[in-house]
């Protein structure tokens, strides 16, 4: 089986699993992420420009940990994710973008995450609460900490709880 066929088969398996948290989908994503090669990056990038939410989320989910633990495509993935964060309207895609940015742990994502921390949809703010502690850097950026403090007061309990945990973990590093 060629590398292109294997990638295509894994992408199809992930796209056809109707459960976004399903084991088939996430096993295919994990297999793609472990490949960590240019062909997989290229396919994930293509999916990020897909016509459907499902395609875009899959592309983002692959990019977030492509080539783990070294993440050789982090510098190429970051601009794609930041672009999606500015032009995407679907909260599910934005949530996935934030989770991926959190996985990349790159301080350059901080302005993007702070912007989305003010989003009207609680799912997006939850993603921001997850990402912020991972992108504030060391020592933690004061604007990132301020955004976490705002999220601690969020009207959505899940957002507030996750932000409180993130703030506690980040403050422990001070």
Automatic annotation (TrEMBL):
InterPro entries: ARM-like (IPR011989), ARM-type_fold (IPR016024). Pfam families: HEAT_2. This is HEAT repeat-containing protein. It comes from Sinosporangium album.
